[in-house]
Amino acid sequence: MNKTQSKPQSDKPQGIPIWAAFLALLVFTLVGLAAVGGVFYYLNRENAKLRTDMAAQKAAQDQHELERQKGAEAVKLTMAANRQKDLLAQTQVATNALEQLLREVNSLTLDATTLKTNEDGKRIALYPQLVDQTRAFYQKQIPDLPPTPDITTRLEGARRMEQQILSQAGTAYEPEPELVISAQKAVSVANQDLQKVAQVRTVLASLIQESKVKYTTATLSPSSPTLEVALQQQAEADATKTRQTLADNTTEAKDQAVQTLAKAEAQRIIDEANREAAKIRAESEEKKAALDRDILIKKADQQTEEAKNKVAVATAGDEAHKIELRKKAADPAIQAKLASFITPGYWQIRGSTLEKKPLSFTRLVNSGALASTPKGGSTMASIVSSSNDRVRPRWKINSASYLHYPDAIERIKEAQELLTELGPVLVEMKLLEP
What we know:
- The protein is mainly α.
- The chain has a two-stranded antiparallel ribbon.
- α1 runs antiparallel to α4.
- It starts with 17 loop residues before the first helix and ends in a 6-residue tail after the last helix.
């Protein structure tokens, strides 16, 4: 029987096939390339993201800078607008004040001119003393008013400044400090001039009011002389009086000279031998007479000037005092303290009226309410607290027991003092009845 014989095994070790090694190397290479590609891809993606982030950050920074610039520009515009607004407000105040000043000056000048021929002027012409005061008013106070051309020039300057500011609206223009100072000065000067015009207006009103208060037997008629005629007549009378004084002094000097010459001539006849001496003496006396005459004329001129100055000073002092009293009477704080007297109402100290009027100053005086005595204070307390008066402000005060309250006493005393001091002026201002 044939037995199959097995193939003898080789003792030589078996190695990795070449194709397997090549395949493994290829796989490893592909894996490496994939890894490198992945790394490059990751890096490129990160770089792209980084560039995107940096671009976004740069855009954000640019936007922020733009917003900052816009904000700064807005702040600058706002500040400029505020300063323009402030200056515009000041120039408008100046314009309004100058327009008012121009109207007041023109109105006052017209009223002063009209007074020379109207009925109020004719009434003033009835009183020589008022004519003299009015003459001083025309000679001193009217010329002292701000000239109309000057006011017009200042008004045009304020309007020009206002238009300059309006033309720059919405821009970053900031007004120069000189413009601000100029506008402030224009307002200040205009207000000062308005006060001056108001004072002159008060003097004019006072003259007219005084002519309605004074009494004379002369009557006002259509044929009564105007104030202009009275002023002219007074000026002519003063000039005539001055000339007459000079003429009288000159005549007296001439008479003295004539007497001296007569004596000299008599002496010449009596004593022919002393003719030359008498002639020299006569010439000396003549020179002395001329010198005396010059001295008399100068003395008369000096006395005339002194008298005019005294009258002007006295008139100015009285008028200044009246102006101060009117200013005090016009003070809102003073009027508030006197509201129970100056407020128009129906009730009066003696009876009532059908027309609202302030209390009568004369009746206040005659009632004894202004007397600085307990009885006067009681009368005053009764007047200001009377329940019969349902219009004027009332004081919470008892006329029978007010002496027990120091505050009530001081309040009554203050009212008495104010009414005593300002009563006539309040009547002139029609804040109290006569």
